[in-house]
User: Fold this.
Amino acid sequence: MSDVTLTTLLKSKQRGEKITMLTCYDATFAATACVAGIEILLIGDSLGMVLQGHDSTLPVTVADMAYHTACVKRGNKGALILCDLPFMSAATLEQTYQSCTTLMQAGAHMVKLEGGAWLADSVRLLAERGIPSCVHMGLTPQSVNVFGGYKVQGRGDAQAQKMLEDALALEQAGAALLLLECVPSELAARISRAVQIPVIGIGAGRDTDGQVLVMHDMLGLSLSGRTPKFVRNFMQGQSSIADAISLYARSVKDQSFPAAEHEFSA
Ligand code: KIV
Assistant:
């Protein structure tokens, strides 16, 4: 695989070719995922739950993210490395610059922030300073205490309209990528059509420009024993993790994943 860049991703969207993203936290899985066809490796702050065993992503620090980003960078074979800004690491502009410096110097090519249009200034200022950003919208796990649980977002006309307007404002501000989590499929499709930048979905239906899953989920591993509706266990019928990740990548590309059973309605 030749190096994945923002230009590559934009061209994929323009050609209607789906983009593959998977969370990744270490060098061996990074190398395995790249060989299997994953184009974006996300060092998600989900590591707080799947690696560290916390019940939310809130305890994760910038130092944790930098450590895992450096591990992933060592195993990477051409994927774009996207790293989450963890809880309250971008609460002020000064903090945002400091956190992004640490993560980019650890090996990230792009950072991900959770929120909406209120992030437009940060997104613009980061882009001006050479840091591409992805904005994670919909169910943003760092706000679980505001939402009162991990619930579908963007249901109802007012919420849907607001999310669409936020997406347009963030694109205008210079966001390189959007990520929609647990959003009704029709809304995710509308947003994906409305913006020129690629939109990656998780629990957002089949019409986004690409898909992401938490690696442990798609390998059928769960601490809680609960599997979210939008997850498919790709280990089923496979004899190795490499084969399961490869099947996931192929299923995103040929659009057999996600299927109707993984979607949320408005
Ligand atoms: O932290 C993470 O793994 C994420 C995914 C759920 C998209 O943000």
Summary: Residues 23, 42, 44-46, 84, 136, 179, 181, 202, 212, 214 surround 3-methyl-2-oxobutanoic acid (CB under 6 Å). The longest strand covers residues 133-138. The beta strands are 19-23, 40-43, 80-84, 110-114, 133-138, 177-181, 199-202, 210-213. The longest helix spans residues 157-173.
